[in-house]
Amino acid sequence: MIYKTKTLENNNQNILLVAKKIKAGNVIALPTETVYGLAGRFDNDLTIKKIFSIKNRPLSNPLIIHYGSIENALEDIYMDSRAKILAEKFWPGPLTIVAKAKNKLISKIATSGLDTVAIRVPSNKIALAVLNQFNLPFAAPSANRYGKISPTSAKDVFDELNGKVTTILNGGTTKFGIESTVIDISNKKTKILRHGGISEESINQLIKIHNKENNILIRSPGLSNSHYKPDKPIRINAIRPREGEAWLAFGKKPSYFKGVSLTLSEKKCLDESAKNLYKMLRLLDKKNVKSVAIQKIPEKGIGLAINDRLRRAAFIKDK
Q: At residue 144, what are phi and psi to the nearest 5 degrees?
């Protein structure tokens, strides 16, 4: 179905309107502190199916359920001390906890039929305002085509999904620009399933993390080998650009290069680079170039999350 997509400005009236739309079973796009998401009722199978359909996302890839308060989020899982420690330190914020599901109302389609659920409490004031008006959790995966670049502005969502969603709530540019860290506490071994807005070092100061293991079941979004892909091919860990390529620098742009060139951060700031990553990839995707070469990013802090996204964006299956 093709809709006339409207972008609404952030104000109390529109927050109330969006909350009513979600409560009625509609799917809308709104900002979180990480990226923009497609929000729909957590307990409505038809709504959840609509989210998967809009994104063209496989049903085997579960959604993250967002809550307006820490208390409500923790009530919906079977938790131990790890959940309390993580929630007290990092919520509201860009951390997703995967644990055994307790609330039977959570759509089985949203959890891909698993006995676990991915939950978080966002810190974005607009998302929290909608959640508090709505007074129920909502599922909210990134508001983009499955496998493509996540949106960090209302315009990104419009460019991606114009005609597929009725409403986009404009909240400006997202703070982190990269998705949440996902941590699995569904068994005794604590594992990071996806690097994101909270660094592994920060989590390790509180609880012991085991090395990531290959799971038969996908308990978290963003785990497919090919993901976060622009339409143009990218080359990562590049030393210098080749003929016909655009250059995405980490640091200052090279003065000798006369082609298309952008930088994630002139000061080599990893936080700034994470915030700019998807924005820069979208800008370069629109340029008249064959491909995009990306300078090496340090594998530390949020740089782990940046490199994770870049590796998945550059992934090519063996023929």
A: -150, 170
